[in-house]
Write a structure and sequence with these properties.
FAD/NAD(P)-binding domain, two-stranded antiparallel sheet, 4 strands, 5% strand
């Protein structure tokens, strides 16, 4: 029995990822179409960006305003990943016959051309997450036990 389903996708991005002591991360901060499988990955990147900053501020190693770099780091990346997801989604969901023929017949051939596929993936895949200047994690000092082991 043929199955048919209509899926709809949204792009939503919170106006602010931080309001005072409240931070939004993951789908609470942004939702994107699933075409390049980056929804959850974006949330993981959010908390990876935020957690070390919270830790550094709470332990007094960094000043509190560094927490503002969380949104500055994450929002442009989320928007760019979403733009690429929408682009890939347009190709996947294309219904015009000449275009679907190009997609289904020509793309697999082009996929076999060395270098071409990886180049296209770089342009349409997900960009490296950025970290604003001054908000990079400080190098973690080696654990004393590891240091003593390395001297023996
Ligand atoms: C069909 C599909 C395929 C997907 N494929 C991929 C993929 O391949 N790769 C990828 O990276 N991402 C994928 N995603 C996206 C991914 O699933 C989500 O981005 C991710 O689960 C979001 O995690 P989250 O913790 O931010 O939010 P959620 O998973 O929504 O978790 C929020 C949690 O909070 C709970 N909650 C809500 N309100 C309250 C409240 N008031 N009090 C207490 N708890 C509350 C909810 O019950 C829920 O457990 C896909 C999503 C879908 C729907």
């Amino acid at each position: 029995m043929p199955r048919a389903a209509v899926y709809s996708h949204h792009f939503r991005c919170a106006a602010r990822f931080r309001v005072g002591r409240v931070f939004l991360a993951g789908d609470a901060a942004h939702a994107m179409p699933p075409w390049i499988g980056q929804g959850m990955a974006a949330g993981v990147r959010d908390v990876a960006n935020l957690c070390w900053k919270l830790d550094a501020v709470l332990s007094g190693q960094l000043p509190e305003p560094v927490l503002d770099s969380y949104e500055a780091d994450r929002k442009p990346h989320v928007k760019e990943v979403t733009r690429r997801a929408v682009f890939v989604g347009r190709i996947i969901t294309e219904r015009r016959r000449p275009v679907t023929w190009l997609r289904d017949a020509v793309l697999p051939v082009l996929n076999g051309v060395p270098g071409l596929a990886s180049g296209c993936r770089t342009r349409t895949g997900f960009p490296s997450p950025a970290t604003t200047p001054g908000s990079r994690p400080a190098p973690v000092p080696a654990h004393p036990a590891a240091r003593s082991r390395s001297h023996t």
